[in-house]
């Protein structure tokens, strides 16, 4: 059975004046349940991750400032909103959800976190609405527990996975592949194992062609026994922050390419959903739900 991490705190609203499209975290499971793609048995609610696991990827001083809500105001502005205890707990549950999903992926082939993909969080900073890097923490957890030996992180959010790249810059066992808008946030890029910067306005055929070539390169270089996928839908032409021009059909094909490659190679795959900022929430939810629909077609 395909398992999906979800918790009510995922949809916790940000403080007034700092709204973020968190509604999708409620609507994605609701839509999947309504249409019959999933049942309640597919969903599980994670507990907060423990401190020792956080410290596998983040520096102690940074984590303690998050935990104690003492992060300097300048660093909170870099994240994009002021801290509060519920937002920190939300991040802890998201991270544990990705860890739990990794275990389910090893068992069942694929597993999801409705939230996650917090790839802008580096070892000692938060940025771009990201406090803790869920997939980076989980990758180090798998290595630490000898549950994986070589890991590939496929980041197809429209924004570079700068935090992920920084965390693993000296870790040869983790290959970071980021295909992103060249002139988009973050404006100071880190160096991934494989970076594929894209010009503004890239359309369906060009995007998918570049993906096919570079995904093959990533697999050949990484030789992974576990894969993480960050499936942001901010690549859509409707996205107000993305600057690319993909149709929903191409976004779904992007996901099919990644999921099929992992299935063909018999590699466990954990998927976190990443960004999506289209003006119409229905575009965001439908594009994200397509990823789940594909997984149930391919893996069940």
UniProtKB/TrEMBL annotation:
<dbReference type="GO" id="GO:0040029">
    <property type="term" value="P:epigenetic regulation of gene expression"/>
</dbReference>
<keyword id="KW-0378">Hydrolase</keyword>
<protein>
    <submittedName>
        <fullName>Acetoin utilization deacetylase AcuC</fullName>
    </submittedName>
</protein>
<dbReference type="GO" id="GO:0016787">
    <property type="term" value="F:hydrolase activity"/>
</dbReference>
<dbReference type="Pfam" id="PF00850">
    <property type="entry name" value="Hist_deacetyl"/>
</dbReference>
<dbReference type="InterPro" id="IPR037138">
    <property type="entry name" value="His_deacetylse_dom_sf"/>
</dbReference>
<feature type="domain" description="Histone deacetylase">
    <location>
        <begin position="21"/>
        <end position="288"/>
    </location>
</feature>
<comment type="similarity">
    <text>Belongs to the histone deacetylase family.</text>
</comment>
<dbReference type="InterPro" id="IPR023696">
    <property type="entry name" value="Ureohydrolase_dom_sf"/>
</dbReference>
<dbReference type="GO" id="GO:0004407">
    <property type="term" value="F:histone deacetylase activity"/>
</dbReference>
<dbReference type="InterPro" id="IPR023801">
    <property type="entry name" value="His_deacetylse_dom"/>
</dbReference>
<dbReference type="InterPro" id="IPR000286">
    <property type="entry name" value="HDACs"/>
</dbReference>
<dbReference type="InterPro" id="IPR044150">
    <property type="entry name" value="HDAC_classIV"/>
</dbReference>
